[in-house]
């Protein structure tokens, strides 16, 4: 609620202030060139803040109204490969090497669309993490243990700063200028709805997000 209140006030306060200013301006019988500039700038600012607010509400809706997974039997590595191909233009643009080390076929009962969203979110995070690095590599690996299937997505970035590690799964928390801050939260919610979980591991010169799914 703190985050929601903060975002709403960040948009509504300037919109209200500008609306009051416009209300005063339109009471005048004539407008100066400066008045017209003020009106134009106010309208542009209100439009931008309204767009931001709409995007925020849409992001919240995605989190609050996550549908129940429609599970079917899916070969997970085929799905991962499809996501890699989907993201290929982005990997190529950022000169990132992808290594899929999964060499086994595993059939899992999952919602393919929701799991695709998880992989895309994690790949996107890795692209951002590798932005200013010389070595740009993403490794996908997996192992089966005790009726659970673990998928690891590891990148050669520096990892997440220690002081924000406990915040990365919070809704709307982001360190990216263009980020909405829902990718990891949504991914975590999807996996929990599947009876699994999403975990973060930090090693030397590597960052790993581990997906756990029930076989």
Commentary on this structure:
With 215 residues, the chain is α+β, with helices and mostly antiparallel strands. The longest helix is centred in the first third of the chain and has 32 residues, at 33-64. The strands form two sheets. The protein has a five-stranded mixed sheet with strand order 2-4-5-7-6, covered by helices on one side. A two-stranded antiparallel ribbon has the order 1-3. Helix content is 48%, strand content 21%. The protein has five helices and seven strands; from the N terminus they run ααβαββαββαββ. A hairpin with a 2-residue loop joins β6 (197-203) and β7 (206-214).
Please write out the topology.
Layout (H helix, E strand, L loop, with lengths): L1 H25 L6 H32 L7 E4 H18 L3 E4 L6 E4 L1 H18 L7 E9 L2 E8 L27 H11 L3 E7 L2 E9 L1
Parallel strand pairs: 2-4
Antiparallel strand pairs: 1-3, 4-5, 5-7, 6-7
Brief write-up:
This protein is 48% helix and 21% strand. It is α+β, with helices and mostly antiparallel strands and 215 residues long. Strand 6 and strand 7 (206-214) form a beta hairpin.
């Amino acid at each position: 609620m703190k985050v929601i209140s903060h975002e709403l006030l960040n948009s509504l306060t300037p919109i209200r202030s500008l609306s009051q200013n416009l209300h005063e301006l339109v009471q005048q019988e004539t407008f100066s060139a400066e008045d017209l500039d003020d009106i134009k700038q106010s309208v542009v600012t209100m439009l931008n803040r309204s767009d931001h607010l709409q995007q925020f509400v849409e992001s919240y809706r995605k989190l609050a109204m996550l549908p129940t997974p429609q599970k079917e039997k899916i070969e997970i590595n085929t799905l991962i490969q499809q996501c890699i191909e989907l993201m290929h233009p982005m990997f190529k643009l950022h000169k990132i090497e992808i290594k899929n080390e999964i060499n086994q076929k595993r059939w899992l009962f999952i919602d393919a669309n929701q799991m695709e969203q998880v992989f895309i979110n994690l790949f996107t995070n890795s692209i951002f993490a590798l932005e200013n690095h010389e070595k740009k590599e993403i490794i996908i690996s997996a192992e089966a243990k005790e009726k659970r299937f673990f998928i690891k997505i590891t990148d050669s970035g520096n990892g997440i700063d220690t002081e924000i590690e406990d915040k990365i799964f919070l809704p709307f928390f982001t360190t990216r200028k263009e980020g909405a801050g829902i990718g990891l939260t949504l991914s975590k919610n999807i996996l929990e709805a599947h009876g699994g979980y999403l975990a973060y591991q930090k090693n030397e010169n590597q960052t790993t997000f581990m997906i756990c799914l029930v076989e």
